[in-house]
Amino acid sequence: MNTVRFTLNRPKALNALSSPLFRELNDALTRFEEDKGTGAIVITGSEKAFAAGADIKEMAPLTFSDAYTNNFIAPWSYLTTLRTPIIAAVSGYALGGGCELALMCDMIYCTSSATFGQPEIRLGIIPGAGGSQRLTAAVGKSKAMELILTGHNFSGKEAGDWGVAAQVFDGSHDDCLNGALETATKIAGFSRVAVTAAKEVVNKSQDLSLREGVEFERRVFHGLFGSKDQKIGMNAFAKKEKAQWTNE
Ligand code: CAA
């Protein structure tokens, strides 16, 4: 299975997330999600910016009725409905919607010097793409409240220390991107059925009680005994061979 890389590329606006950018990203994501050959996706930006937030110039003239009737920003969360694992490789600014986009991905790899934050309070608004929920789930209520109420940024190093990022790289953007691509390639090398199930059960832990989550996990675990790849994986182990996955 292939690994696909998406690079946000609006350098003049530090990859500010505009509606056209998201339409393009969502169309591309759909194409690769539907391609049975895609095993994992990496979303990245540049050395200077993963994304400096929602496009403030696009938002400035919006009225309540524009935002409400068009369900402004709702299409951003399309990414969270995909079954393919997605890694965010973050260098530079990941502010506001940029931080939220990274948090929507399945895991974050970042440089230690990356700058995360939810600065919306400074613009007279609040996070609108899930930041108040996902950041709180990642760092706990007290720290999330401090970050969102003050608009203070936090570093990539802190993101690692607080469990927001899965891996932190002291080197350059390329080191971080290569680390993310390496992990994506590893994931893409496993059975698609098992990978899809693993992503689904971990995500369910965010929505269900522990008892419901454990029961859900067990049902999905039982279901995997109906897959060809469970037999292939276990027989390969017994024969000390490398499993040749069928993704069935
Ligand atoms: N929207 C639109 N344009 C942006 C932008 C944004 N979020 N962030 C940066 N830009 C533009 C700047 O306007 C500037 O354009 P011009 O050259 O045409 O003036 C260009 O990108 C370069 O930016 P700066 O000159 O400001 O670069 P800097 O290095 O001095 O500062 C920065 C970098 C600290 C990231 C600063 O650009 C900044 O504070 N940006 C805004 C960050 C922000 O508030 N993000 C949250 C947005 S609200 C949101 O995201 C809501 C939500 O929950 C979805």
Automatic annotation (TrEMBL):
Protein name as catalogued: Probable enoyl-CoA hydratase, mitochondrial
InterPro entries: ClpP/crotonase-like_dom_sf, Enoyl-CoA_hyd/isom_CS, Enoyl-CoA_hydra/iso, Enoyl-CoA_hydra_C
GO cellular component: mitochondrion
GO biological process terms, semicolon-separated: fatty acid beta-oxidation
Keyword Mitochondrion: no
Pfam families hit by this protein: ECH_1
Organism: Endocarpon pusillum (strain Z07020 / HMAS-L-300199)
SUPFAM superfamilies (UniProt xref): ClpP/crotonase (SSF52096)
Key words, A-Z: Fatty acid metabolism, Lipid metabolism, Lyase
Similarity remark: Belongs to the enoyl-CoA hydratase/isomerase family.
E.C. designation(s): 4.2.1.17
Keyword Iron assigned: no
Class of enzymatic activity (EC top level): lyase
GO molecular function: enoyl-CoA hydratase activity
Top-level division of the source organism's lineage: Eukaryota
